[in-house]
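Moderator note: this is an archived Q&A kept for reference. The question asked for a predicted structure of one protein chain; the sequence and the answer are reproduced below.
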Amino acid sequence: MQYPEYIPYKKKNRKGLKILFLICLLILLAIGLYQIPRVNRVVSWRIDLARTYIHRLFNPVSDLPAPVVSRISAPGTPTITAIPATITPTPLVSPTPTQVPTPIPSEVVLTAPAYDEVRDKQDWNNCGPATLALTLRYYGWEGDQYDIAKIVKPTRDDRNVNVDELVYYVHNYSGWLNAEFRVGGDVERIKQLIAAGFPVMIEESFTTDRQYWPEDDLWSGHYLLITGFNDATRTFIVQDTELGANQSINYDILDKNWQSFNRVYIMVYRPEHEEILKNVLGEDWDVEKNRENALAAAQQETQNNPDNAFAWFNLGTNLTSFKRYTEAAQAYDTARSLGLPQRMLRYQFGPFIAYFQTGRTEEVMTLTKYALEISRTSEEAMLWRGWAFYQNGDEDTALKYFRDALKIREDYEDALWAIDYISAN
């Protein structure tokens, strides 16, 4: 009987299988952990930062493009039409002593809304909803930043929430509160409002510590809630959803940072206190008069400091609000020639409007392309890039951009209107 050749026993090497199994298990665990909201909030922006930085290593970001025309050369004799004397700001009428102390106290500190480091620290690019949540909580509202973001920022990757979107939320979702925003504010206006019991929400600029690309200028927009002031130290008390509660900031520093956003301010109030608010604002309660005052102030700042790009940008923005598009485009040209931050067009869109309305389509193309390179989810840049293609006769591409804007925010009325307009014509 012949037996088979001896086959020695060899123990199977299962080490490789174990490693593969462990890797798969870790991947599944990571995916599971990423679905936990708190983990997602901590990790997602870091992933985006790394992805953006690597992309920009091969696709560098330049400075915001300068215009193809020269800047206004003589600040003393600009081509901008002189503002009529009738819109020169007049001194605010002193309100009745029972409503606002006269003179304003040297120090007022309102009770700051409760701040929870976990709940209230802003989510990724969510300082607008987070700061509004604190503002509403001052009046007893019980929601948080995520309740607001679901309405005004349904796409988490959206980098910006505009002032009018926040006011819209208050009008339609806060329940019993009202809100207004105005432009062209100043330190005294903030103090007046706080002295009357109204915390003030502003949009301003700050320097971020997160470098998203090698040439990142680190300039970014940010919202603050101001709840107190002290003339002796010349400081405001602010609730900052990035840095924390009860931060202190110098009057002059705040004003400098605030200028880049046309010194816009939001007031949330109970409807029964509207008359008090009207008395504090005086003629600035009237929206058109407020804009006239802001226009006059911006023009004065361009004359006082003709090398201040933000002053010229504000001038353009206020002119745009009055449909004085040719003059606005000139002001924006000067601001761009002087140099604007890389993220400027993430937050403010007046140049798109002014250049479109004056037929400078290539400028709209250039700026919207740049804006989308900086903020790929900017529905406003998509909208105006679409209009630029429409102006050039390319309706198909225009519609694609309008539909892309709706992917970021499906109820974006400007994009919906644009699609209806093209369909009807």
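Archived answer notes: The domain at 85-289 is CATH 3.90.70.10 (Cathepsin B; Chain A).
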